[in-house]
């Protein structure tokens, strides 16, 4: 066997994009200085869980972590996929953290991916599972992913700190993506959403819906927010409530926003109990705030919201050798980081042009010509 | 301040994202930082948090904190406008179907011509 040359990287930033792109391009990576200066150095639990997930989906991959966990060697294998897989995402990050790279990985797998993910379905840091259903999946369809195969079922919801949620995910495989010209953002024609409660009064859900509607109704009559009240085994292990909203435009773009309120996951649980449990933000305020967040996303413009910029750029870069053109609002920090990783791994550089009249940014790129090599041709 | 920042952004968005040479990349990395933190005051050079000093000492493309959290959401709940005010919500009226359709269409035409 020949000597493997590793791509050297530093720090835990953009770990997901790095691992994902390394796997898609079969580039071995060596990451050093992972949380090296922290009191508790080394990989975080969710990062390890992510590595385990990649290990599960691929064949012949090699993961080496040093004693303190500050150094990681990763040699990707072949993406296999497959059904009857189960993965416990833990409670340090929500399922959304894992779903973002998982979706792209699944598209380029050999077999259709069917996996059960357990953990936190909704939290304030990562996109909620509702957002994946309402916004991320339509975004994938734009790039030629067959809509019949994409499935995400929320079996039970779980919020921090103890999780207990479960979702069933199905991702079809594709031969290749299709490049898209997508600059028409359209006008918002309707707003949909879902409010959920777990282990708290149903009334809180109604309060959120009422407050959110109050903000939108001056602008648009077509607002419908469904409610999802989970009880007993379907409600996970912790009390919480949240809301996710999506604005659909006349040109088929989806702009989303979501949040969840629950008790923080504390490493120092005694502390929290000592302080007699911090008060949560009232439900009405949550609805009002999130509605404002959505309006702000709409104001920014672009065909996707700021959360989905990274995914959008990745999809563009993974297209066949063809031009993609997209419009986004102000570049988000995550979007910028993703652009950099794309250049480093795929050697795809975007042409970025601001559009001063609308305050948006237009990005063009020539796809990297990514093809699914492991999938059987029919 | 926002206007100035956006002007700066217009000029070198490409540089801001990718960086050109060692000298520009340092400034671009700082600008990105500025963007996300709304331009922290430049005057107090004396008191810098530990992370920032480390950032300045590291040379290279993205000299920021290398262990920043991997998170796609970047919404800040504290900096929201008051969307209940009429002026504020009327400002995006044309982004909705209830607004002026011709203006909405113009928005796309103008940018497509470019």
TrEMBL record, chain A:
Record has Nucleus as a keyword: yes
Gene Ontology annotations for the cellular component aspect, listed alphabetically: nucleolus
The entry's keywords: Nucleus, Ribosome biogenesis
Keyword hit for Nucleus: yes
Domain RNA 3'-terminal phosphate cyclase: 9-352
NCBIfam families for this protein: 18S_RNA_Rcl1p
Name this protein carries in UniProt: Putative RNA 3'-terminal phosphate cyclase-like protein
């Amino acid at each position: 066997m020949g000597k493997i040359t590793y791509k050297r990287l530093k720090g835990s930033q953009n770990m997901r994009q790095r691992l994902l792109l390394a796997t898609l391009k079969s580039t071995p990576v060596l990451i050093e200085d992972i949380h090296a200066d922290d009191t508790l150095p080394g990989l975080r639990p969710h990062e390890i869980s992510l590595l385990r997930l990649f290990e599960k989906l691929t064949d012949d991959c090699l993961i080496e972590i040093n004693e303190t966990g500050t150094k990681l060697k990763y040699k990707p294998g072949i993406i296999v996929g497959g059904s009857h897989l189960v993965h416990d995402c833990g409670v340090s990050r929500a399922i959304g953290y894992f779903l973002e790279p998982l979706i792209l990985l699944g598209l380029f797998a050999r077999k259709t991916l069917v996996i059960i993910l357990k953990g936190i379905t909704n939290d304030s840091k990562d996109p909620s599972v509702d957002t994946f259903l309402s916004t991320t999946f339509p975004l994938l369809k734009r790039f030629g992913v067959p809509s019949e195969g994409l499935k995400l079922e929320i079996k039970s919801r779980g919020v921090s700190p103890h999780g207990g949620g479960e979702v069933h995910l199905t991702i079809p495989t594709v031969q290749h993506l299709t490049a898209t010209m997508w600059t028409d953002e359209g006008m918002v024609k309707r707003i949909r959403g879902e409010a959920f409660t777990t282990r708290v009064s149903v009334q809180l859900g109604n309060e959120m819906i009422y407050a959110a509607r109050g903000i939108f109704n001056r602008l648009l009559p077509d607002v419908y927010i469904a409610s999802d009240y989970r009880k007993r085994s379907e409600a996970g292990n912790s009390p919480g409530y949240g809301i996710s909203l999506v604005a659909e435009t006349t040109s088929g773009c989806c702009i989303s926003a979501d949040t969840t309120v629950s008790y923080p996951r504390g490493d120092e649980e005694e502390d929290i109990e000592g302080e007699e449990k911090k008060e949560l933000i009232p439900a009405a305020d949550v609805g009002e705030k999130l509605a404002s967040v959505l309006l702000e996303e709409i104001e920014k413009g672009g065909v996707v919201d700021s959360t989905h910029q990274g995914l959008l750029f990745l999809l563009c870069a993974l297209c066949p050798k063809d031009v993609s053109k997209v419009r986004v609002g102000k570049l988000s920090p995550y979007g910028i980081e993703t652009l950099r990783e794309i250049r480093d791994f795929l050697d795809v550089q975007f042409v970025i042009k601001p559009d001063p009249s609308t305050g948006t940014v237009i990005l063009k790129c020539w796809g990297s010509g990514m093809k699914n090599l492991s999938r059987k041709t029919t | 301040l926002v206007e100035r920042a956006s002007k700066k952004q217009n000029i070198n968005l490409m540089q801001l994202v990718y960086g050109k040479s060692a000298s520009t990349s340092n400034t671009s990395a700082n600008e990105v930082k500025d963007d996300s933190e709304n331009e922290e005051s430049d005057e107090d050079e004396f008191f810098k948090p530990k992370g920032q000093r480390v950032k300045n000492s590291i040379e290279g493309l993205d000299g920021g904190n290398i262990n920043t959290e991997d998170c796609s959401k970047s919404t800040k709940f504290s900096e929201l406008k008051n969307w209940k005010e009429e002026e504020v919500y009327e400002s995006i009226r044309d982004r909705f179907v209830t607004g002026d359709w011709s203006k909405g269409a113009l928005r796309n035409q103008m940018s497509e011509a470019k």
